[in-house]
Amino acid sequence: MDVKEELEQWIVEELSVPDPDLNNIWPCPYAKKAWFENQVKVIETEDNFWDVVNEEVDSFNDDHQVVIVAQQEPFCEYEDLEVSCMALNKWFAQKGMNIWLLSFQHDITMVFIQRLSKLDDASAKLLKKGYYDNYDDDDFDNLIAERSARRLYDARNDAWKKETHENDAWWCS
Fold this sequence. Notes:
The chain has 173 residues and is of the alpha+beta class. The chain has one domain. The chain is built from six helices and four strands; from the N terminus they run H-H-E-H-E-H-E-E-H-H. The chain has helices at residues 3-15, 31-36, 49-59, 78-94, 116-128, 137-172, and strands spanning 40-44, 66-71, 100-105, 109-114. A hairpin with a 3-residue loop joins strand 3 and strand 4.
């Protein structure tokens, strides 16, 4: 089975089935629709994983909601993959990029590339439905609260830059 077939099977059989630990909401309630509406781009690589992630981040243009970079054979421990994604997310924040990486590894190593704003909007809807009620506090803080705080910080920083630019524009004219 190739990566796309495995992903489709995972989406249909696991991510789109009500989960009692998530208030009977699907583990990923947006995955099935995005997949079957061709809003997911899958890039399979055999090597140079991070180079491919970099290329896909650079070329991300909203033609798809999600780009998944996948490698059949895991090349690192999951913890290393997650830490790498979190470090890149912080770098994206410093650069003012509306990008967020999520990691997943089982038999396949995957990084999901998405717009932070869209991911956070979807997460806010799930929060209202009780989706995160049974999340471990540390997981919630690391996965959800940190991402939302980053978006709020970005919005405030953008407003400050705009205000500063508008107030300083008089001497540039």
